[in-house]
Amino acid sequence: ATPTSITVGIGKAAEYGILIRASDALQQIQKIDTIVLDKTGTITTGQPSVTDIIPIEGYDKNQILHYAASLERYSEHPLGQAIVQAAQGIPLDEVHNFNALAGYGVQGQLADKTLLLGNAKLLQSQAIETSSLTDTATQLAQAGKTPVYLAVNQQLIGIIAIADPIKPDSAQAIRTLQHMGLNVVMMTGDNQRTAQAIATQIGITDVLAEVLPADKANKIKSLQTQGRIVAMVGDGINDAPALAQAHVGIAIGTGTDVAIEASDITLIQGKLTSVATAIQISRATLQNIK
Ligand code: ADP
Ligand code: MG
Question: Where in the cell is it found (predicted)?
Answer without folding.
Answer: Cell membrane; Endomembrane system
